[in-house]
Amino acid sequence: MEVDIRIIGKGCFFCSELRKIVDDVVAELGVSGAKIEQIHEMDALLDFGVVNPPALVVNGKLKMMGRVLVRSRVRKAIEEELASIGSALESEGEG
Question: What is the pTM for the complete model shown?
Fold first, then answer.
């Protein structure tokens, strides 16, 4: 299952911590097709409407932003997107 995860911020301590959490959660969930990248360009902040970095963007959807790096919230955000991908795949199979 492919999932595109972006951590958007200025490259601060909180961005690095969010990256560690995302890496751990992806490994725990066994997501083999995850593409994880950190983006430090200001244009990306503006494109996603991020006013309080770091931000977590999963498959193009802004899931969270700010310094609140709660592992359970990060996990829930990734799981929600994985569930929506699974639902979309099931719908395609029915048609």
Answer: 0.85
